Structure formats: structure tokens, C-alpha cells
């Protein structure tokens, strides 16, 4: 009976894992200070629940709130709405939120210019090299790309096209057609020193950030302008945890999902905020863009010496030692998580997956090409010859691209010299034939000389002359 109950519990656990859309878990904690604002985002909550996420709403004032339970994450995902006080309280300090990210938790941070940005939030973002305006109520405006219906005077509802591809070698998880309505956004700037951060949605070229509380008619020194301003930014840590900064939390409200907006030229269109927000949360909660290495193999290959044998012979898999000038094959199996399951990972045509065979510096840097495809993965492989250098080497695959979980595989091996019985014989080396021939010619010549000396008798006249000379002298 106990065995049957254990099997049932195991089956239920497996079913719960399969039913979840995220690669890491389905528990979401929503920090919402004002409970009355929950109804403004009903479509957003419903979309998350339709994707099998389990939402828990808590107030930052709850002293019993904790992101960890028994040393593990209590929630895999966290949604932070703008606080009305100076911060999120003692249970959600910047230190605790950093520990949460370091433990692998995903965070969606929403900002709003109406409620202001507390200094605790600004200091948290500075840890990721994401900067906000020193004015807590700074807002992004654009006098050329705004909604004439809802922002005819303040021009603070931006109309932005959906983001394009960041770089030719980067997968675009947020693209598409349509117009986004971005009401009362808080702009961010990204530092150039950290490659872990990337912009998702940038402000138009004619936008700028300023404090509406200032009475000046013109802004002389704005915080940032044009494409320097980011409306949505992302940070992906080395442990694959994802932190997304949404400059306008109002984008998630029901009234902006499919709303009718009007450009200054008079053209009207429907907003695609709902589709964009779905793409944004899919990436933040690790439903897409998650890479997994299923296996890594390397082995020595040799060509058969006899025609009756196989053309290629494989030695043991993943050995710890190779010899110089060995032919080696390396392969890595990679899958990409796509909402419910893993699919084969395909490297973009403008990008390359590479293998480095390195000691202190790479001796080989080779492209890995797809050799086999399974239902859930793609096997990339390459073949090369170990260098004529002994020492400690490593197979290294370092693939890091924005919006994809990083791949960093390193397998150490030893490369040795030839053993004494592995060197080719002298007669097998054509370049040694003159030296071998010279050696044997000396030996044969010496033997012929000895034979000639031993068996050649001097003339009889010479013998008699020497004998008579010896008698006369005596």
C-alpha cells in the first residue's frame, strides 16, 4: 500500500512538472500594496493563470513574507509593482532581492512615474548597472509620437513600434507588427560595462525624460534623450536568472490591451500591448530562450589499417588522456525550451557555435556544425587533430548571447607525447633513407676491408726480400 501511494505521489509530481509552462517552476508572487488596483490588471492575471502559473498576492507590509523557505526558493517568479512608500519594507530589501536573483529567481519590476521611484529601487537597479533619473517623478515624453486621444496636452503616452532584432546574431523573442502604447514611462539607461544587460524596448528618437514638476518651459539638461532611453530593459545573470525592468506598469492594465490610439497625423490603430506583455513574461519567467546541454562527448577516432575492418574505429568515450597528433571528435547535444517542452536548438545563420581546444590560449577554435537532430535536441560536432604540444588542455564551449541562457562547458584532458613503442621505425620514414643507407654502406665497406685484409696474401718476391733483409741485419 505504501509503495502504491508513493508511486501515485511520484506520478502527480511528474504531471505537475509537465503541466507547467516554465522551465523552472510555476509559483509566482505578486507584490501589490494597494489591493484595489488588482482589478485594473485582470486580463494580465488571467493570461498568467491560463499558462498554468499559480499566483499569490501579498502586500510588502506583511511581516511574515519571505522569498525563501527552508533555504530554498518559496517562489520561482516575482512581480514587483511600484510601492507608494519609500520602499518594499524590511522583507524585500535590495539585499534580499539580490539574494533571490543569485538563487535563481526571476523578477519582473514595474515602474510608474505617478507613484515615483523610491531610492531603494534605484539602488537595487544600480547593482545591475541600470540607472534611473535622479528625479523620482521623471517621465518620458515625446511631442511627435504620442496618443492624441489620451495625451493631447501632456504627450506622456508614447506610441512605439514593437522592437526589432537587437543584433544579427540575437534571436528576437519580442518582435512582431503593431503599435505599443506606453503611458507615463520611467526611462532607464544601461551601463556599457556589463554584457549581461540588454535593452528590449527603446524610446523613439524624439523622446526625452524630464520632471513634470519643474516650471521651466524648456528642459536644458534632460536625463537622457532618444535611443539612450530604454522603456523595457533586461538583465540575465550567469545562473540564468532573469530580471526585467518595465518602465510603465500601466502597459499591463486592461484599458491598454487592444485600445484604440491616434497618432498626431490622424491615423488610428489598435494597440498590441497584450501580445507584447505575453512575450515579455514568457521570456522573464523562462518559458522561452532556455538552453540545456544534454550531453557532451569526445573520443579518439582512427582509420582502420585493413580493408576488411570498419573505416573508422572509436576508442573509449570521454577519456582523460590523448596523445599528440590524435584525431579527435567532439560533440555536444543542446536543446531549447519552448513553452512546454524542449525542441532542437538551431543556431542563427548569422551566428556560430564554436569549440575551443585551449591550454593557456586556444590552439584550435573550430565551428560546431549540426550532425544529428532528435525530437528534443540538436547534436553539434567537429573533428580535429590534437596539437604537437603536450600539457593540460580543455574542451571549451562558451556560447553567450542576449536573451538566451549561457552555455559554458569545460572538460579538461591531458595530452601526452609519443610512447617509446609508438614512434615509427626508421625504415618507415622516407626522409631517413639516405642516413640509413650511409650507415649500412660504412658497415659493409668495413667488413669488405677486413675480409680483404685477412685473405689477401703478399707476393712471394716481397716475402723473400724481407726474409733476406732480416738475416743480413742479424
From TrEMBL:
InterPro entries: DDOST_48_kDa_subunit, OST48_MD, OST48_N. The keyword Transferase applies. The chain crosses the membrane at residues 432-455. Keywords: Endoplasmic reticulum, Membrane, Signal, Transferase, Transmembrane, Transmembrane helix. It is found in: Endoplasmic reticulum membrane; Membrane. Pfam families: OST48_MD, OST48_N. It is a single-pass type I membrane protein. Residues 318-456 form the OST48 middle domain. Residues 1-20 form the signal peptide. One of its GO terms (biological process) is protein N-linked glycosylation via asparagine. The keyword Translocase does not apply. One of its GO terms (molecular function) is transferase activity. Component of the oligosaccharyltransferase (OST) complex. Subunit of the oligosaccharyl transferase (OST) complex that catalyzes the initial transfer of a defined glycan (Glc(3)Man(9)GlcNAc(2) in eukaryotes) from the lipid carrier dolichol-pyrophosphate to an asparagine residue within an Asn-X-Ser/Thr consensus motif in nascent polypeptide chains, the first step in protein N-glycosylation. N-glycosylation occurs cotranslationally and the complex associates with the Sec61 complex at the channel-forming translocon complex that mediates protein translocation across the endoplasmic reticulum (ER). Pathway: Protein modification; protein glycosylation. This is Dolichyl-diphosphooligosaccharide--protein glycosyltransferase subunit WBP1. Residues 27-284 form the OST48 N-terminal domain.
